[in-house]
Amino acid sequence: MSFSIDLLSAFANTYTFLVSDRDLGLAMAVDPGDGEAVLRALKQRDLYLALILNTHHHDSDSGNDKLQLEFGAPIIGPAVEQISVPGLSRAVAHGDVVSFSTLRGDVLAVSGHTDGHVSYYFPTLKALFCGDALPSLGCGRLVEGNAVDMWEQMKVLRALPDDTQVFCAHEHGEANVGFAQALDKNNEALKVRAAQITALRKAGKPTVPFLLGAEKQANPFLRADQPDLRKALAKDGLTVEDADPAAVFATLCSAKDRFGAQKG
């Protein structure tokens, strides 16, 4: 089978992902915030929509009704949010498996941004669709969950293979560079990643997808249990009284809110 993944621009700084099996002429939409954008892409590529995946409610599911009406595609989304996700056909939770064509995807719970937020990891594609949970050099803003739970979920994502391509729902890389560098000034991996992000945005290109391996070394929200980051936080005047990584993660979240909260 020949698969491809296309980025579709939805709203400002927001992406929907279209996974296509060109041999069968079938497609799967992930977080279709803009139904019209998905319809246009399907028509241009002569594809039939067979499945819709939602990582969470909010702006990622506003195209569900339009697409389901047009194609009758089943909609999969988080069980905790099944009342909130429009047109949900199947509710999933951590450890469940989803299928599209010959692909199998693992459902990973990543609550924090929303109570039921999930991600979908497809080993064959080496692709993680993580919604708002893991934008480059950041993490999803704590809207419904808490920092302790979200840190546990960050460790789940961090445990995935380094060659995983991360498809997050928002273009926050450039916005997150300043915060990450302000806290972790001597991180060489962060300097490299920041330069890459700046170059891509200057050229008008997306920073998504990005490699998880590089993100593990550069993203402070994935490094809350690393001693060098805790030392950097202390030098920057942030109080980290407890060595517990969840407390460090909570400090990072609070600092990011004060620095300038991202949208989404």
pLDDT under 50 segments (min length 5)? none
Overall helicity: 25-40%
What characteristic shape results from the CA principal axes? globular
How are the strands of the biggest sheet laid out side by side?
1-2-3-4-5-6
Q: State the secondary-structure class.
A: alpha/beta
CATH class categorisation: Alpha Beta
Order of helices and strands: EEEHEHEEEEEEHEHHEHHH
Query: Which fold name corresponds to the CATH topology?
Result: Metallo-beta-lactamase, Chain A
CATH superfamily: Ribonuclease Z/Hydroxyacylglutathione hydrolase-like
The CATH architecture term is: 4-Layer Sandwich
Largest sheet: 6 strands, mixed
**Helical run tally:** 8
Describe the structure.
With 264 residues, this protein is of the alpha/beta class. Helices cover 34% and strands 22% of the residues. It has eight helices and twelve strands. Helix 4 packs antiparallel against helix 5 and helix 5 packs across helix 6. The two termini are 34 Å apart.
Topology:
Layout: E1 3-9, E2 15-21, E3 26-30, H1 35-45, E4 48-53, H2 64-71, E5 75-78, E6 90-92, E7 97-100, E8 103-109, E9 118-122, E10 127-131, H3 147-158, E11 165-168, H4 173-183, H5 188-202, E12 210-211, H6 212-218, H7 227-235, H8 245-260
